[in-house]
Amino acid sequence: MSDESQGYPTSIGTSDATTITLLGHDLADELMGEVGFGELAFWLTTRRRPTRSEVRVFETVLVALADHGFTPTAIAARLTLLSAPESVQGAMAAGLLGGGSRFLGVTEDTGRFLAETLAARPETPATDEEWDALARRAVEDRRAQRRLVPGLGHPVHKGQDPRTPVIIRIAREEGQYGPHLALFEAIGRVAPDVLGRTLPLNGAGVCGAALADLGLPIELLRGYALLARAAGLLGHLAEELRQPIGGDVYLSVDRNAHYVDPEHSEVRDDA
Length: 271
Fold this sequence. Notes:
Low-confidence stretches: none
Number of helices: 12
Order of helices and strands: EEEHHHHHHHHHHHH
Strand order of the largest sheet: 1-2-3
Distance between the termini: 57 Å
Oligomer: single chain
Mean pLDDT: 93
């Protein structure tokens, strides 16, 4: 057995006493100062260097997902820093661990839903009417299964998520508007009729559609959302150090807690 067969192959990077190699390039001489972080993140996960158009759409998505105020993920990070001020990594991890089906995870859920819907159709729709028909079947199927349509609705932006039209516009400008975004827009058009109410196409959902149109792996879409939110969480932690609110949040809950006899307590159905 050769020495190479006993090793651990990687196409990411390696190093020796004098050089660091990343993606087949000399890190110090060829990449540092020449490649942006968003471009590098795209490159690392796809093993191909993105075009400028792809980078613009990708970084637009990262910016869109970086922060959305005092979400549970941000609060978790701040409270963890309050509890363990010596552990910035723990606070960051606490925030990232909250990226699930209600926050951040919608990006992957939407991308997967759109990809599966498209994969089930032999040919890509050619007209708005065909897109609407495909979207209608997809929404009706989800409704029949009593499952939410990922990417629809937002707890704050009831009319329109301001991120959605911007991402769609930039994707069009850069020639990166593809079938996932087309289907997502069609879902927005037909959903009110199928569901009986109007829900906006949310930012996390349109980000999933845009990332899928870039050809990024569906199973990694949540990872890109977490990559973006890491920057926002670091911002929250920096602000927490300058102007802390974690203690007030803790005391507000703790001082307003009251005991309820388990035999008379009710389980909330909106949990």
